[in-house]
Amino acid sequence: MSWDVILIRYGEIGLKSRRIRRIFENKLINNIKTVVDGKIKKERGRIFLYPENFEDALEKLKKIFGIVSFSPCYEVEPDLDVIVNKVLEVAKEYLSEGDSFRIVARRSNGHSFTSVDVAKKCGAAILKEFKEKNLKVDLKKGKEIYVEVRKNKAYIFTEIIEGLKGLPLGTQGCVVGLLSGGIDSPVAIFLMMKRGCKVLPVFFDSRPYISDAYVERAKKVYEKLKEYSIGEEFELIIFPYGRITDFIVKNIPSRYTCVFCKRGMLKIAEEIAKRNNCLGIVTGENLGQVASQTLSNMLAITDATTLPVFRPLLTYDKDEIMALARKISTYDVSTLDAGSCTAVPDRVATKSFIDEVLKIEKESGFNDIIKEEVKKFFKESDSDAEGC
Ligand code: ATP
Ligand code: MG
Predict the structure, then answer these.
(1) Where are the domains of the chain?
(2) pLDDT at position 56
(3) In sequence order, what are the beta bridge partners of 203?
(4) What are phi and psi for residue 74, nearest 5 degrees?
(5) Gap from CA of 217 to ligand 1 centroid (Å)
(6) Quick one: pLDDT at residue 258?
(7) Overall CATH class of domain 174-387
(8) Alpha-carbon torsion (383, 238, 201, 365), positive or negative
(9) For a pocket test of ligand 1, which of 175, 178, 179, 180 has the largest count of ligand atoms closer than 8 A to its C-beta?
């Protein structure tokens, strides 16, 4: 027996005003269309996908934001006898000797029968047809056979596959994502994507203060995240940051190395954002996770940009972040051995004094170096990343 259609459920979009809902639904459908070949039909709260390749489509749907769940289904006419016959076919394959089962039915208005009628009739027919299998009805724990009767068709399925949820990618504008390749930043970027943001990922290449393996790890993590960027561009920008890191090491008091490193990243991210219509910057920072991630340091870092800095992981525990990283399969690549940044001093300031930071910044000529590197970068690449 082969499936006829995949029924796709989307949640939050259904709650928006009609105009916004239409925009969101169309974006979700377009995102699906970029990776799945086949016909698509839309009804309120549901999308029906008739893919050319079911296995492939089911895998792709697991990576598309804005989908609550989906089910491969059989599609029949919304007639009670027709439904019962199809349910019997499904039960023949799906239920084994001694199984308990239940029919979970729902139906839209406009039919001469109720959902209870559907459940009762299908249940009774199964018990009668497969007497020798010794089946039982268990309304709480039985294996489910779902019947969803809509206006024009009825859908029968046995599986509800969880989607990523969130909002369709690209419905909330664009942000620059600071992607280090460690465990945190890919998860932070994923969470912004989940809320519908297109992300422009940027990696700062601090070689020789980081290893080649560090850069390779960032690229690999980027490739993993790219799998979720269905429907939107997701091109990695690698910004050469070695000269700036070197300047910091040689000219900035070592307790402020990390603060200046992040200030520089945000200043450059802002330049990249302006050129690509991005409305914010996302980082994987977390309150108190490492010595440099204190409130006063974050204040001193955030001050470097006028754009909002989004930190979706701010309040997460490390094990929660690790669990998410595993779930989105970035964990294994993020934990590849890549060494750490050798510019980081033994002791970093846990409390930054913003006046002092600004004074050091002014006197050291830090901003001139940043400007030079930004100018050089854009002249050389003229940013080949796509705008939002
Ligand atoms: P991560 O696990 O994401 O590496 P972390 O906990 O190690 O983060 P830091 O090294 O202090 O924390 O970095 C804080 C944030 O700054 C990162 O989450 C990331 O968003 C950004 N960041 C750090 N290094 C880089 C880099 N080389 N390129 C781009 N962004 C970076
Ligand atoms: Mg890190």
Answers:
(1) 5-162, 174-387
(2) 97
(3) 238
(4) -100, 140
(5) 13
(6) 95
(7) alpha beta
(8) negative
(9) 180
CA of 180 to the centre of ligand 1 (A): 5
Q: Is the CB of 167 under 6 A from ligand 1?
A: no
For 290, phi then psi, to 5°, come to -130, 165
Q: Quick one: which atom of ligand 1 is closest to the CA of 258?
A: 11
Mean pLDDT, consecutive 10-residue segments, the chain of 388 residues? Answer: 94 77 94 97 92 97 97 97 98 97 95 95 97 95 97 96 97 97 98 98 98 98 98 98 98 96 98 97 94 92 98 97 98 97 91 93 98 95 60
- The helix-helix angle for 295-302 and 354-364 (nearest 10°) equals 40
Predicted local confidence at residue 300, as pLDDT: 95
Q: What is the pTM of this model?
A: 0.94
pLDDT at 1 (0 to 100): 80
Which CATH number, 3.40.50.300, 3.30.2130.30, 3.40.50.1820, 1.10.246.130, labels domain 5-162? 3.30.2130.30
Please indicate whether residue 245, judged by its CB atom, sits closer than 6 Å to ligand 1.
no
In DSSP terms, which residues pair with 129 in a beta bridge? Answer: none
Is the CB of 203 inside a 6 Å radius of any atom of ligand 1?
A: yes
| Nearest residue by C-alpha to atom 17 in ligand 1 | 284
Ligand 2 centroid distance, CA of 216 (Å): 14
| Closest alpha carbon to 214 in 185, 180, 238, 240 | 180
Q: What is the pLDDT of residue 291?
A: 80
